[in-house]
Amino acid sequence: MALSDINRISEKVYNESEKIDNWSNETIKNSTPGKISGFIYKIFNLMLNDTAKGILFKLFILSIYGLLVSLILPQFADDRFGIGLIIGFCGFLFLINLFVKNIPKIHFNSTDIFVLIFTLIAIASTFHSYFFHESINGLMKLFTFISVYFILKLMLLNSSTKTILNFYRFLFVCALITSLYGLYQYFIGAEQLATWQDPGSENIFTRVYSTLVNPNLLAGYLLIILPVSLTIPFASKSSLPVKILFITGCLIIFACIILTGSRGAYIGAFITFATGSLVFIIYLNKKFKINFKTLLLFTISALIIIYLALTILFPQVTERVSTIFTLREHTSNNFRMNVWMSCVKMLKDNWLTGIGPGNKTFLQTYGLYMVSGFDALGSYNIFLEFWIEFGIFGFLCFLLILLTSFLKLHYIFWLKNSFLAYGIFLSLIAAVSHGMFDTVFFRAQVYIPFWLLIASIGKLEGRDECRGL
Questions:
Q1: Helix/strand/coil percentages in the chain, nearest 5
Q2: Total-model pTM
Q3: Confidence class for position 57, pLDDT limits 50, 70, 90
Q4: What are phi and psi of 369, to 5 degrees?
Q5: At CB < 8 A and 24+ separation, what contacts does 29-36 make?
Q6: Surface-to-core class of residue 452, CB atoms within 10 Å of its CB (0-12 exposed, 13-18 middle, 19+ buried)
Q7: Is 76 helix (H, G, I), strand (E, B) or coil?
Q8: Which residues in 364-377 are b (16+ Cβ under 10 Å) and which e?
Q9: What are the residues whose beta carbons fall under 8 Å from the beta carbon of 224, sequence distance 6 or more?
Q10: Exposed, middle or buried: residue 187 (CB in 10 Å: 0-12, 13-18, 19+)?
Q11: Is residue 356 within 8 Å of 121, Cβ to Cβ?
Q12: How many Å apart are CA 302 and CA 102, to the nearest integer?
């Protein structure tokens, strides 16, 4: 498919989705809940003065920053209930600001419709589940994360361009601090858990986990933040020293990802780099007429140099990379392949409506299909997981959310020259590609940034919202 065809499809999807956006926006506003909300707005609006409203909105913004900080704190690494309470507090402040009209822009788009449809499918899957109690628990967690999407989306819509960039800058700082602590662990030799290393490996090296306790979770968290962080100084047209600072910070984050030893993250990083390079090469070739072959040769050379540098600096990484291709000869590979085989059997019996949401539902069902000795917390593939939990319609709805997001971001980047859209596109690629080989996608440290990326599209797709981004 030629680039012109992709551009044409992206523009068509963008224009058609705008029609759906306008229809959904008017329909929801004119519905009974929408009219009741409008009435409540008027009551609350009369109760507070402008100063009080300003304080409330600042508290709401600070609560979102607090949520982002909680993602890197060790006490929340495994405490999903604690993060749920913080999300609940953010939601409480969000509703207050909504009712006092600190959030006047309420625009629903096609992605919102798909997310709501996905939620309805999840509810149907829950009530069809053989493990109803466990599925209800999983559904509540899903509701919590879905609420984060709508809270972030409406917050960004009612914030300035500077605010959205500040959120991503703050995420970058959090990732950088976490990475620096990870590097510190590597140099002092952090205590390891036996399950993180392959018993047959000749070279055991320190797999860093920083404040997140688990190296695979750390890799997933850093990998979803890295690409968009790299584009922030270019999106905001920062000075040269600021650009150098961000690039240096991103190199530190990348080094920490390497030191996690997460082979799923290695694959995700490679796919992201290859995709990002190809898109950017085509962009430079079409926009500035720079020779395609020269750019491609430069990119391949850069990739070789990076690999050689990693081999020299971290020789143990070479073995980790080589084991990706050993299939069943490596215990971790063998484990995943057995899990996938069991999950395919689960899928054959539950392909229509799924088993119900949540890892507890998965554990209960997986026990009926598992290969002896290969217990698992998830399917180690997000596409397989979505299909197993939510059935064929939930799986297709998730694909639709991803596809429309990618096409919108392509359109915004290509035709509006939005580097932030380019960064968000690559961060989504990173999260999805890593999620094809690991289970950390559904942890708050990855899931919340994922929904932040999706929510940001609602801000960027406005006709005048991309200026400066």
A1: 80, 0, 20
A2: 0.89
A3: confident
A4: -120, -15
A5: 29/106
A6: buried
A7: helix
A8: bbbeebbeeeeebe
A9: 427, 430, 431, 434, 446, 449, 450, 453
A10: exposed
A11: no
A12: 48
Largest CA distance in the chain: 71
352 alpha-carbon distance from chain centroid: 26
| pLDDT band of 195, cuts 50, 70, 90 | low
Q: Is 293 exposed, middle or buried (0-12, 13-18, 19+ CB in 10 A)?
A: exposed
DSSP codes of every residue in 182-249: HHHHHHHT----GGGS-TT-S-------GGGS-HHHHHHHHHHHHHHHHHHHHHTT--HHHHHHHHHH
Question: Which of residues 223 and 295 earns the better pLDDT score?
Answer: 223
* Banded model confidence at residue 116, pLDDT cuts 50, 70, 90: very high
Task: Look up residue 121 and give its two tokens.
Answer: 């499918």
Mean pLDDT of 284-307: 81
Distances (CA, A) of 201 to 160, 205, 325: 51, 10, 14
- How far apart CA 88 and CA 106 sit, in angstroms, is 20
Place of tokens 């499918």: 121
Average pLDDT over residues 310-321: 76
CA gap 337, 330 in Å, rounded: 11
Polymer length in residues for the chain: 469
Token pair, residue 253, equals: 């984050």
Token pair for 35: 């009219």
CB 74 within 8 A of CB 213: yes
Q: Which of 64, 283, 251 is nearest to 175 (CA)?
A: 251
Residue in 352, 387, 376, 391 with CA at minimum distance from that of residue 439: 376
| pLDDT tens-digit readout, 447-458 | 999 999 999 998
CA 353 to CA 347: how far, in whole Å?
A: 10
Whether residue 220 has pLDDT greater than 70: yes
- Token representation of residue 236: 């905001």
Say if residue 40 is exposed, middle or buried (CB neighbours under 10 Å; 0-12, 13-18, 19+): middle
Quick check: 223 and 430 in contact, CB under 8 A? yes
DSSP state letters, 169-180: HHHHHHHHHHHH
**Average pLDDT of the chain to the nearest whole number:** 85
CA distances from 396 to 14, 173, 273 (A): 19, 35, 27
Q: Residue written as tokens 């598992």?
A: 370
